[in-house]
Design a protein that fits this description.
Radius of gyration: 15 Å
Strand content: 25-35%
Oligomer: single chain
Number of helices: 7
Structural class: alpha/beta
Shape: globular
Distance between the termini: 29 Å
CATH architecture: 3-Layer(aba) Sandwich
Order of helices and strands: HHEEHEHEHHEEHEEE
Helix content: 25-40%
Number of domains: 1
CATH class: Alpha Beta
């Protein structure tokens, strides 16, 4: 088990076995600029270039535990960043799952693709698709999604994005930096819960 995963367990953020495995097997250092690789295990948000900041491992693990992605699921990620969360999700959903990651900045999407390529299982099993488009309205082509996770803080979740969430699907999105959980019930209604004590620091 990695030092980072062990630290997140002891602080009560990582609880689920498959997520612990993902944080152990997918090294954060592989996705950071070289000058930050030596502090990859630190529980702090770090710059990833182009004015963007990746959230702390503590916040990310909280979001993933809240989202509850599972094996074989179809996942949408809003904001690929440099690819760490995309690789984590790929490990969690496995060879029969799929991850679509959309990113507004072509330079970040390219970094994400290059970093993800360090993990051969992702390309071998054709798990990930990355797309350069605005993130607010998601990516309808691969919908419906079992889970939607945003790595950008939004002002609100659009109706177009909500429509891409499957029945019983969950979505975790920072709304004005407050982590917010959405769930589509069997009746089709979307329920919402704010976690005001948890602030998202990624941009």
């Amino acid at each position: 088990m990695s030092h980072l995963a062990n630290n997140l367990i002891h602080k009560g953020y990582l609880k689920t076995d498959i997520y612990i495995e993902a944080f152990s097997e997918i090294s954060r250092a592989e996705f950071l600029p070289d000058k930050y690789a030596c502090i990859a295990d630190a529980n702090i948000a770090l710059p990833i270039g182009q004015g963007h900041t990746a959230p702390s491992p503590q916040v990310l693990s909280f979001m993933i535990e809240l989202l509850q992605p599972q094996l074989k699921e179809n996942i949408l990620i809003l904001g690929s960043g440099t690819g760490w969360v995309v690789a984590l999700m790929s490990y969690i959903v496995g060879s029969d799952g799929h991850v679509t990651a959309i990113e507004e900045m072509g330079s970040l999407e390219e970094k994400a693709r290059n970093n993800i390529a360090k993990y051969n299982f992702i390309a071998r099993d054709d798990i990930v698709k990355t797309v350069v488009i605005p993130i607010e309205d998601g990516y309808a082509e691969n919908a419906p999604y079992d889970r939607i996770l945003s790595m950008h803080s939004l002002d609100e979740v659009s109706e177009v994005l909500k429509q891409q969430l499957a029945k019983d699907g969950t979505m975790v999105v920072p709304i004005n930096d407050v982590i917010t959980y959405f769930e589509r019930t069997e009746s089709g209604k979307i329920e919402r819960k704010r976690f005001d004590s948890v602030l998202f620091s990624g941009t």
